[in-house]
Structures are given as C-alpha cells and as structure tokens.
Amino acid sequence: MPFGNVNVDYAPCKSVGALKASADYMLGQKKEQIESGVRKTSEGLYTALGCNRDNFANGILVTRKLNGKSYSKHKANTILAHKMSISFHPLDNVDHKTAFEIAQDFAEHFIHSKGYEVLFAVHTDTDHIHVHFLISNCNMETGKSYRRSQHDLYEMSEYFGKKCLEHGFTNSVREGFYNHDMSRQKDKLTFGEAQMKKRGAESFKDELREVIRIEITDPNNRTFDDVIRSLKEHYNVECRVAGNTVSYRHPQYLDKNGKSVSVRGSRLGDLYTRKGIEYELTKKYREYSTAGTFRAVGERDETESRGTSDGRGQVPDRTAARNSRQDVRGLDGFYERYADRAAEDERESAAAVGHPGAVSSKRKKRCR
C-alpha cells in the first residue's frame, strides 16, 4: 500500500497575528521575504476554497463571527487555523502545475467538502516541491471546530500516495504509513490524571504505563508478542489485540458496576500502541547493536527462543540479557515495587481470587 508524505507537525495559529503571519508566509508576502527577493509561490499556484485567497485571514475571522465563535488575544488557547503540508521527492521532478492540481484535489476531498475554508500554495523556492495548507478551525455551516484523527491522517497519506503513483511519482511514496516522530510523543493525560499528578497521586493508567515500559525495556522481549505475553505473565495485565489496536486490562481496577476496565493503548499515549511498542523495540535493538552486545539469531539455542520470530535480525546473548534485566529492575525502583505488590496481593487474594493481581490498586479514587 503506497503512502504519501502528509505532514501535520505544525503549531496551530492561536492569535490573529499568527494567522496573518502564516498566510503571508505561504504567499511570500512577509516583509523580510519581499526585501530579500524570495519568491515562495506565484500567480496560478495558490488559491483558497470557500473564501478570498488574498484576504484569507479576515475571511475566516468573519466566518467565526457569523457562527458565534469568539476570539481574543486574551484567550491564548483559541485555535483559529491549522497547518498542513504535502511534499514530493526531488527525483520525481514534479512540475508546479501538476503539484497544484493534486493539492487542489486533496484540499477539496479532505477539507472544503467537509465545510472548512482552506488556503493552499505550491512553494517553488526549494528543490523538493511541496504545498502548504492553512485550514480554518470553524465550519462554515455549523461552526464546529476542525478535527483530524489518526485515522483521517492515515487516509490522507494513503490518498496522496495513490495520486502520486497515478502520475508516476514513485519516489514520493513509501510502503509503510508514517506521520510523526514517535520519540517525541508524550503520555496522554486526562484532566483528572493531570490533577492527580499535581497531588503526587498515581492513576491506574500510570501503573499500566509503568509496567508496559518495563517490559519494552526488558532485553528478553524482542517482539510485540513478547511484550504482550510478559505483561500477562509478570503483572497479570490482560491484553486484547485486534489488528493494530491493543487494549490493556488492569487486574484490580473495577468500574462502579464491578466490571474490569480496559483502556486502549492510544488513550495512554502513542508509545503504548502497537506501532509505538514496535518502534521502541526497534530503537532498543539498534542501540544494543551499536554497543556490540548482539549475535546472530541462528547462534542461540532453540530453547532460548521466546515468542514468534521470523528468524531475521539479531538478539542479545544470554549474558547481555541477564545483565540488562538487572538494569531494568533498578529502573526507578519499578521492578521492586511491583514485585513486592505481586507477592503481597498473592498472599491476600489467593484464596478468594485464585490468581495473583500484580498491579495494585490501593486508592479509593481512581482516574479513568
């Protein structure tokens, strides 16, 4: 499946000044651009859908007023517009007109057809042709804010990739979906979790995050399946995997009806999804490989193998794995804390439950 390069890693416009500056930058109308003679785009390579292309900022501000959406410099978190871009590989020698046509089709399909004004411009000042989009955060008909989910981004990248292949731009696509730097992702906290963290308290989601990180760091876990299996064996955390979606069930946290609560990895943070775990495992083994602690898979005994494997790549030998596990056990005291909890819970609930609950839930109030 081909995927094109759709970049959404931009800060949104949260003030009128930032909105106008972004529009001017896209069109090459900033003072410093004009003075330096930089030409970002040209006539026929930029336009707007839903409003005037040369007065985009004022146009979407009027739309906000008509829909009762207030904005003020005193409301720092009010998002007025979102940014996005698509880019082509230099080796494809994409001409500006074709890039504009693809961008116009893309904007109509994913933005304007859903009721949002959008300004876009083909930039011609670099070797790789790319297109910038500025998207109003207010729907023209309903006033609702613009939303772009992970699934939407996947569809955008897939759609753009197909368009590239239709024009023969084979260098501008990749086989795998990619969107952002996983190493920069942070834990996703609800308001309640954030308040608990301020008080120094820990939610059941924090406990899940901690044990998942422990198993990812464990050098004995080579694959995603290894991590899932170890979570059950070591912490009694049940995991349900459906395609690329993974959910975790805390062994002792129950809802008000007494039922076990499951939480998707995406709600814990991107690093706790299947993609995030596989990314961390790849990065871990790359670091081990650089340190010279690996040997070929075929050199180890069959009895050492854990989980499923395709027989490719390298894995740490027994000595390195044992030493690394000791390092994991000392990681902020996580291992000892949960080992103690497991032993205590097993003693207290063995008769009633029949199995250990490794991740403890001692607080009366938990944040979901």
Automatic annotation (TrEMBL):
InterPro entries for the chain: Endonuclease_MobA/VirD2
Bias (Basic and acidic residues): 297-309
Pfam family, one: Relaxase
UniProt cross-references to Gene3D superfamilies, sorted A to Z: 3.30.930.30
Annotated segments matching region Disordered: 296-328, 344-368
UniProt domain MobA/VirD2-like nuclease: residue ranges: 45-168
Organism domain of life: Bacteria
Protein known as: Relaxase/Mobilisation nuclease domain-containing protein
Species of the source: Ruminococcus albus
Lineage: Bacteria, Bacillati, Bacillota, Clostridia, Eubacteriales
